[in-house]
Design a protein that fits this description.
- It is built from 8 helices and no strands.
- It has about 180 residues and is an all-alpha fold.
- The chain folds into 2 domains: about 100 residues, Orthogonal Bundle (Rna Polymerase Sigma Factor, Chain: A); about 70 residues, Winged helix-like DNA-binding domain superfamily/Winged helix DNA-binding domain (Arc Repressor Mutant, subunit A).
- Helix 1 packs across helix 2 and helix 2 crosses helix 4.
Length: about 180
């Protein structure tokens, strides 16, 4: 662990202890520290901006209520992201019909890539829709957000090996669905 990572972890630890003792501003700082990554986790599962915001809000609320049970020596981010992932999965289960908000609209891109074309975006969204919830979540968490298999397993409540297998099958399914596009590029 680098010195910078150690400093962030120590700051997070102090904020957790302060929040557990009732300092609401400390919890607000934890929210600010983790809200972007929490949103990315939720968005990878639910695919709509509104549902992702709802999942993050529900996740933070649940974390605040359960903060007294959290052990400060653990990684707060991993605990929180697991709660947010569960909230997102709950929302997905409750909402069978999704709106047309596309995943790629919220992903920042530092350069112009082929995915910016409307046709390719439409095809990619359609291909992602072919995947089940868990496979879609695993591929986005791994390939877009950069989480490791073990982290994904903890977030989704599945074994690391299942996360690896889901990623393999999701990629194969996307390759099959998007195979015609490669030949057209």
């Amino acid at each position: 662990m680098s010195e910078a990572e150690r400093a962030v972890r120590e700051r997070e630890h102090l904020l957790v202890v302060a929040a557990q003792s009732g300092e609401t501003e400390a919890f607000a700082s934890l929210v600010r520290l983790h809200q972007r990554r929490a949103y990315a986790v939720a968005r990878s599962i639910v695919l709509t901006h509104e549902d992702a915001e709802d999942a993050v809000q529900e996740g933070f609320l649940h974390a605040y209520r359960a903060l007294h049970r959290f052990l400060p020596d653990q990684a707060f981010g991993a605990w929180l992201h697991r709660i947010v992932a569960n909230a997102a999965l709950d929302i997905t289960r409750r909402r069978k019909v999704r709106d047309g908000d596309s995943l790629t609209d919220t992903l920042a891109s530092p350069f112009r890539d082929p995915g910016e074309s409307d046709e390719l975006r439409r095809r990619l969204t359609s291909a992602l829709d072919l995947l089940g919830e868990r496979q879609r979540s695993v591929i986005v968490l791994h390939d877009v957000q950069g989480y490791k298999h073990a982290e994904i397993g903890r977030m989704l409540g599945i074994p690391e090996g299942t996360a690896r297998s889901d990623l393999h099958h999701a990629r194969a399914r996307l390759r099959q669905a998007l195979g015609a596009i490669r030949s057209q590029l």
